[in-house]
């Protein structure tokens, strides 16, 4: 069964860069037909799609985050990453990584990791 | 892209049926038969329960069903059970990504 596991800093200072990695097990990020995704959820609030990277290397970002966002993949390590720059308290959230079939629906999720932006 | 509109809360008694609506626009829900639904229990990751409007992943109860008309998609849960109490989110493909609904809290009375 596919497994995804987020890792990275749980505390980031305002104006700095948030960095997370999602390691994929029992599956390959090079598999055709999937997009490797980031989704976040502020405490007590709903889900927000952040962006994803397809097996082909095509990348799509949430327009509201695009100017601060970088998503990349390392196929040799079978993981993909998120960098969000110039963070503020509004970026405090549980960040999930997930697999999207055809960039359409999310059929496998990581457990999520809480990132707090605070000085 | 703006979030899809869902009711903040719905409730029902065990055995009853409930429907959660998800309203978008002609650029998202109305333009693609690519609406998915997720269930999230407190402190847990979301779980896919429907995709492509009506399709159920393996292992998901037949009590859950989906439909779409125009710019509005719907999730219906029949024969409500205590385990159905959770938050529910819809999601639509928008061509260059996806957009989620604001979420609906389902309470089983």
Give an account of the 3D structure.
- The complex is a heterodimer of chains A (119) and B (109).
- Chain A has 119 residues and is mainly β.
- Chain A is 0% helix and 55% strand.
- Chain A contains no helices and eleven strands.
- In chain A, strands 2, 4, 5, 6, 9, 10 and 11 form a seven-stranded mixed sheet that branches. In chain A, strands 1-3-8-7 form a four-stranded antiparallel sheet, with no helix packed on it.
- In chain A, strand 9 and strand 10 form a beta hairpin.
- With 109 residues, chain B is an all-beta fold.
- Helices cover 0% and strands 44% of the residues of chain B.
- Chain B contains no helices and nine strands.
- Chain B has strands spanning 9-12, 18-23, 35-40, 47-50, 64-69, 72-77, 86-93, 98-100, 104-108.
- In chain B, the strands form two sheets. In chain B, strands 1, 3, 4, 7, 8 and 9 form a six-stranded mixed sheet that branches. In chain B, strands 2-6-5 form a three-stranded antiparallel sheet, with no helix packed on it.
- Chain B is globular, with a radius of gyration of 13 Å.
- The termini of chain B are far apart.
Topology summary:
The complex is a heterodimer of chains A (119) and B (109).
Chain A (H helix, E strand, L loop, with lengths): L2 E6 L2 E2 L5 E8 L8 E8 L6 E7 L4 E3 L7 E6 L4 E6 L8 E9 L3 E5 L3 E5 L2
Parallel strand pairs in A: 2-11
Antiparallel strand pairs in A: 1-3, 3-8, 4-5, 4-9, 5-6, 7-8, 9-10, 9-11
Chain B lengths: L8 E4 L5 E6 L11 E6 L6 E4 L13 E6 L2 E6 L8 E8 L4 E3 L3 E5 L1
Parallel strand pairs in B: 1-9
Antiparallel strand pairs in B: 2-6, 3-4, 3-7, 5-6, 7-8, 7-9
SS-based structural class of chain B? mainly beta
Which residue ranges of chain B are poorly predicted, with pLDDT under 50 across at least 5 consecutive positions?
none
| Rg on CA atoms of chain A, Å | 13 Å
Span from first to last CA of chain A?
A: 39 Å
Count of discrete alpha- or pi-helical segments spanning 4 or more residues of chain B = 0
Shape of chain A: globular
How helix-rich are the residues of chain A, as a percent range? under 10%
Mean pLDDT over the full residue set of chain A: 97
Listing every helix as H and every strand as E from the N terminus to the C terminus, the arrangement of chain B reads EEEEEEEEE
How many helical elements of chain A?
0
**Total strand segments of chain A:** 11
- The residue ranges of chain A in which pLDDT falls below 50 over 5 or more consecutive positions are none
Instruction: Please state the average pLDDT score of chain B.
Output: 97
Distance between the termini of chain B: 35 Å
Oligomer: heterodimer
Q: How large is the share of residues in beta strands of chain A?
A: over 45%
What's the overall geometry of chain B?
globular
The helix/strand class of chain A is: mainly beta
Largest pleated sheet of chain A: 7 strands, mixed
Order of helices and strands of chain A: EEEEEEEEEEE
Q: What is the CA-atom radius of gyration of chain B, in angstroms?
A: 13 Å
């Amino acid at each position: 069964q596919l497994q995804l596991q987020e890792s990275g800093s749980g505390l980031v200072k305002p104006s700095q860069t948030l960095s997370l990695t999602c390691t994929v097990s029992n599956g390959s990020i090079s598999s055709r037909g999937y997009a490797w995704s980031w989704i976040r959820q502020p405490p007590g609030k709903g889900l927000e799609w952040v962006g994803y990277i397809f097996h082909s290397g095509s990348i799509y970002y949430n327009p509201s985050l695009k100017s601060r966002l970088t998503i990349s993949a390392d196929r040799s390590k079978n993981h993909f990453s998120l960098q969000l720059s110039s963070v503020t308290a509004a970026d405090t959230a549980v960040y999930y990584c997930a697999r999207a079939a055809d960039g359409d629906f999310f059929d496998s999720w990581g457990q999520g990791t809480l990132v707090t932006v605070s000085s | 892209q703006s979030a899809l509109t869902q009711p903040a809360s719905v409730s029902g008694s065990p055995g009853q049926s409930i429907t959660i609506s998800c309203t978008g626009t002609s650029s998202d829900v109305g333009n693609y038969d690519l609406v998915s639904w997720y269930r999230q229990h407190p402190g847990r990751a979301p779980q896919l329960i429907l995709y492509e409007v009506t399709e159920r992943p393996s292992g998901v109860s037949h009590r859950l069903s989906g439909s779409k008309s125009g710019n509005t998609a719907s999730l219906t849960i029949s024969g409500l059970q205590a385990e159905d109490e959770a938050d529910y989110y819809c999601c639509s493909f928008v061509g260059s990504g996806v957009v989620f609904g604001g979420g609906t809290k389902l309470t089983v009375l």
